[in-house]
Amino acid sequence: MSYPIKSILRSDSECESSSLFGSPKMRRTSELTPLVTEGARSSSPALRSHSPATRISLLVVTGVALLLTLTFVVRQDSSLSSLKNLKGTTRNNFEGPQDEFFCGITNHETGYIKLPNKDDDHYFYWFVESRSDPQSDPLVLWLTGGPGCSSMMALLAENGPCHVQPDLSTKTNPYSWNGHANVIWLDQPTGVGYSYGPTVDYDSGELNVAENIYWFLQEFLKKHPDLADREFFVTGESYGGHYVPAAASHILKANMLRHLNPDAVHINLAGIAVGNGLTDPAVQYQHSVDMAFNSYNVSLLDEQAIEVMRKAQPVCHELIVQCQKERSKCVDALEFCFGALEGPYYQSGRNPYDIREPCTEENVMKCFHFEHIDEYLNTPSVLDKLGVDVHKSKPWRECDAIVGAGFAFDEMLSSAEDVKLLLDAGVRVLIYAGDADLMCNWVGNQAWVMALDWSGKAEFNYAPNRPFITSEAQDAGRVRSFENLAFIRVFNSGHMVPMDQPSVSFEMINKFFQNEDF
Q1: Which EC number(s) does the record attach to this protein (predicted)?
Q2: How many structural domains does the chain have?
Q3: Tens digits of residue pLDDT in 505-514
């Protein structure tokens, strides 16, 4: 099955400015949680082919990218007050049985923001206040990658305050990233999750993504001016290795040019963090075969397959180099490199996102058993609570194949120069990787970080690779750091570190936000 690939040459420069689409809903969550009644449950729609699972075959056919995720963070000075819901009536903070569909006790808000740089694009977001000090803690914007995947999956299965259970009840996550930060989970680009807009205006590369994220933040911070002066962090996972550096770089440059637009809100960019990301494919794909020799003693390839992959590495590298100069070569690079250097692992019977786990499903997502989240996010009572525009948004799917296909020319491009720019500007950077992941493995991530030609390269590469010991005396991984750059290999984790090692992820990200040593 193939999907259309859009041109990446479209310009959005003539889009006119416009106001927000309605107003978000504010509510106070209750401590626990029966989610929906049995009678209110809707049937679960089929997963789209962009999920980390389904996208595996799609990647080979169309060159659509890996599952990724991203996050942003900012600091703020006052907690939230009453806001208008999407229908225009005022709804105050409240708690009680009418809002028991979501667990926890912190304020949260859902809604749409109309992008002022687009004709009719509306981004859906779910914002949750910090459990600790919302008046001063950072604000986190989490963006799941794919490209084309919804951040609501991460909220409800990885690093959000509430996890959906198989019976559609919810359970509080004590290791949610809103423990010491105000967090936004955002559905983007247009067409992902609950976000909507004209299909002719779908995005096709990081320049589009970065600009749209910037304008979303401008409108969000105008609506929440008490957040505007906070430290702001961008974090992400997987394709966040593209999203995060591009968005942060755009913010950095826009801040420098703010004198040209005095109405723009200054965003206090402090750092970025990327987990198991795809950032510099030319370097990372040279380390695909390294996972055949893993610390888990999992047999993935025989000697013949290893030799074939090694012979394919220079061919892959040359195609990726050509892609940087000529975009028309990028799909060829994607198809060859994925097929030759990732494809063989799919014959191993292991989950490519976590080699510790067996998986023989053609759709790898079925090995994660997330179907209940799909069902939950399409339940009428939940859609109503979240204020979803069911007449304009599509039924929720984890990933959208058409949106993802539009990035086929983008995946093999490098975002390393954006990271270099950020580091040399003093922005803090954390790159971390679960060491049981094949898709964006820790060896390749460490390699591109050490190859990065920034001002502190020599000192960083000379720094010791030391144990990452948590507050509970757990030897959780290995860390190398110098000044504003840190790389952490996380033990016993696959592609999604917040899900596999929640307490380690929680401690790691909070140290990063607070600029503490690892």
Answers
A1: 3.4.16.-
A2: 1
A3: 999 999 999 9
* HEC readout, 323-362: HHHCHHHHHHHHHHHHHHHHHHHHHCCEECCEEEEECCCC
Select which of 23, 495, 500, 505 is catalytic. Answer: 495
Amino acid identity for residue 467 in this structure: P
Q: How confident is the model at residue 227 (pLDDT cuts 50, 70, 90)?
A: very high
495 labelled catalytic: yes
Q: How far is CA 240 from CA 263, 274, 280, 411, in A?
A: 29, 6, 12, 11
Residue 388 inside a domain? The answer is: yes
Contact 127, 109 (CB under 8 A): yes
Over its C-alpha atoms, the chain yields an Rg (Å, rounded) of: 21
Q: At what angle do helices 416-424 and 240-256 cross, to 10 degrees?
A: 40
Amino acid identity for residue 237 in this structure: E
Neighbours of 483 (CB within 10 A): 15
The predicted model gives 388-394 an average pLDDT of 96
Tell me which of 23, 49, 195, 238 is the catalytic residue.
Answer: 238
To the nearest whole number, what is the mean pLDDT of the chain? 83
CATH number of residue 193's parent domain: 3.40.50.1820
Give the active site residue among 203, 374, 437, 500.
Answer: 437
Give the confidence band of 253 by pLDDT, cuts at 50, 70, 90.
Answer: very high
User: Is 437 noted as a catalytic residue in this protein?
Assistant: yes
The 10 Å Cβ neighbour count of residue 414 is: 22
Range of the domain at 410: 25-283+371-513
